[in-house]
Amino acid sequence: MQNKYRKEVLKATIFYVIVAFLIVIVICMISIKIGKEKFLMATDLVDMITIDTEKLQEEPIPPVLENFEEETEDENFSVLLNPPDYGVQYATLKIPSIGTDLPIYYGKTLDLLKKGIGHDNDSYFPGEGGSIVLMGHNYGKFLRKLPQAKIGDEIQISTNYGEFTYQIYDTQIVNEYDTDKVPITDKEEILMIYTCWPINNVGYATERYVVYSKVM
């Protein structure tokens, strides 16, 4: 009789131990799940903050044309702060008289010239008061019609920091090595645009057709 009682007690104890163990497992699973959800929520929040921070860091600062005054010579000059990165489109070129409307990229690599007008990175930006040198191919939609532009015609450059209008005052055909015909100087804002010459040339051209214009 006593042995039977002991067996019943042992069975009951085992049962309660198993139940208690199962309850502990369930509680642990619930805790883990809640903790995991909180952990994921916290991770997502960190990711969102990181992404937003990266976006803020990657967002370019817009260019600003700042005017300065020389203390000694009593002259004003302008400098483009936060200029565009090399290879970036920062403006458009329009010559209404010949129907030209093309993007301007800062740089003069062959890849950029396949997309639009190149800006010689050794020259100045519109509005800075120095010479600006632009170039483009002489075929297709590029500068094939450039020789049709006449003296007195307007050239418009729209940038992400302002609008600039120039008037053509001269055109010349120059040798590719005549760099003095496309001078880079800070004395006067002269816009020079050139393309290969002759326009219908096949193969490498050693001459350039240059259009000169000044601020209106």
Question: Your description of this structure?
Answer:
- It is a single chain.
- The chain is of the alpha+beta class and 216 residues long.
- It contains two helices and ten strands, in the order αββββαββββββ.
- The radius of gyration is 36 Å and the shape is elongated.
- The protein starts with a helix and ends with a strand.
- Residues 1-6 and 42-53 have low confidence and may be disordered.
- 28% of the residues lie in helices and 32% in strands.
- The strands form two sheets. It has an eight-stranded mixed barrel. The chain has a two-stranded antiparallel sheet with strand order 1-2.
- β1 and β2 (76-81) form a beta hairpin.
- It folds into two domains: 1-59; 85-215, Beta Barrel (Sortase, Chain: A).
The CATH class of the largest domain, by name, is Mainly Beta
Largest sheet: 8 strands, mixed, barrel
Say what the CATH topology of the largest domain is.
Sortase, Chain: A
- Helicity range: 25-40%
- According to DSSP, the number of beta strands is 10
Q: Give helix and strand order, one letter per element, not per position.
A: HEEEEHEEEEEE
> What is the architecture of the largest domain at the second tier of CATH?
Beta Barrel
Number of domain modules: 2
